[in-house]
Amino acid sequence: MTKELVIKKTISMKTLTKAEEQIMQALWKIKKGFLKDIIEAMPLPKPHHNTVATLLKILIDKKFVQTETFGRMYEYTPLVTKAAYSKNSLNGLIKGYFGGSFSNAVSFLVQENKLSVEDLELLISQLKKR
User: Fold this and answer.
1) Is the domain of 106 the same as that of 48?
2) In this predicted model, what pLDDT tens digit does every residue of 16-40 receive, in sequence order?
3) Is there a single domain that holds both residue 64 and residue 125?
4) Confidence check: pLDDT of 116 > 90
5) Domain check: are 46 and 14 in the same one?
6) Range of the domain at 118
7) Cα–Cα distances in Å, from 102 out to 19, 108, 109, 121, 130?
8) What pLDDT sits at residue 9?
9) Could you tell me if 73 and 107 lie in one domain?
10) How far apart are CA 58 and CA 62, in angstroms?
11) 81 vs 3, 107, 108, CA distance in Å?
């Protein structure tokens, strides 16, 4: 199974808890690393290493992370890119809360004063360039 196929299958089937996402954020930041490296990349307060190790086992089971063994230590590498997971999460949010309509989501952001006229003009400009 190719890495790309694993990414596509994983994204369509699994979602992450908030704690799992925090681990993935740290791993995406460092690209790959050992348990201590992942913990160092996490924001304060740092979670206990047993907690991170347990979450990494779950992420391996969910096919978000793979390991390479070096003696008794594991080096962890993400199988799913941050961009792929972000795309899946955004699509799920739009589908679940805005009936699959990105324009409804943008309208909501405008109504909530989270998107300015300048932001909208920039988006329109980017769309026209495509």
Assistant:
1) no
2) 999 999 999 999 999 999 999 999 9
3) no
4) no
5) yes
6) 101-130
7) 27, 10, 11, 16, 17
8) 46
9) no
10) 6
11) 11, 29, 28
